[in-house]
Design goal:
2 strands; 225 residues; 69% helix; mainly alpha
């Protein structure tokens, strides 16, 4: 197995492709489900990039940047999805993308700062410019999503979709909390945090798929009855 760095990334990417195909064929084509397909597609893109770079021993700064570019839109897209659940109609909600867009634009001028320092079968270690700032910008939308979902679950207005929101919240918590604990207990693993989280985020992909398959007018009408 030592000859197959990144192979777990390929396995997860294949699973996410199956989820995407399943959603395209069977899920209702509404705005929430389209966002979910987009989120899982981002996760697939990152996992495939991680496999490609490690397996083919291609540690190009540009490829590493592209991998980060892809996955950087995951948290704001998750937050946008949660705001869509919450029926937020304001166009200002798209400002949630501004911080990561500005940082990614800055990164174009410092591509040499993006490096893979180690590839293993399971995870990849990265070096990048302004890593602490990136972490704050990356994980803030995830924390906001968790807070809003807790609020919605306890709001009687959303009682008919409470179980669906609990499924989504469960996936985010199962992906986020273990990674946060690992880094808190073993801070020397900080260079692996993106790879850790994106592997764990396969749970988010799974729970979002369950949500999307339940998220159709017929099921919602039956629930209301």
């Amino acid at each position: 197995m030592e000859n197959f760095p990144g192979i777990i990334s390929l396995l997860i990417a294949c699973i996410e492709v199956v989820l995407i195909i399943n959603l395209i064929i069977f899920a209702e084509k509404n705005s929430e489900n389209k966002l979910i397909i987009g989120i899982i597609t981002l996760l697939f893109g990152y996992q495939f990039m991680e496999f490609f770079m490690c397996y083919f021993d291609n540690y190009s700064n540009t490829l590493v940047y592209i991998a980060f570019f892809i996955i950087s839109f995951l948290p704001p897209l998750v937050l946008l999805l949660v705001l869509t659940f919450y029926k937020v109609e304001s166009k200002l909600k798209f400002l949630i993308f501004l911080p990561i867009v500005l940082l990614l634009f800055y990164y174009i001028f410092v591509l040499n700062g993006f490096e893979i320092t180690r590839c293993t079968i399971l995870f990849v270690a990265y070096e990048m410019p302004l890593g602490d700032l990136y972490g704050v910008i990356y994980y803030s939308p995830i924390l906001l999503s968790i807070i809003i979902l807790f609020k919605m679950i306890n709001n009687p207005i959303f009682i008919n979709k409470k179980l669906n929101f609990q499924i989504v919240l469960g996936g985010i918590l199962l992906a986020f909390i273990p990674v946060a604990l690992i880094i808190a207990l073993f801070p020397f693993l900080i260079d692996y945090v993106e790879s850790f989280f994106c592997k764990a985020a396969s749970l988010i992909a799974l729970t979002l798929t369950i949500y999307a398959m339940r998220n159709n007018n017929k099921i919602n009408e039956n629930t209301n009855e």
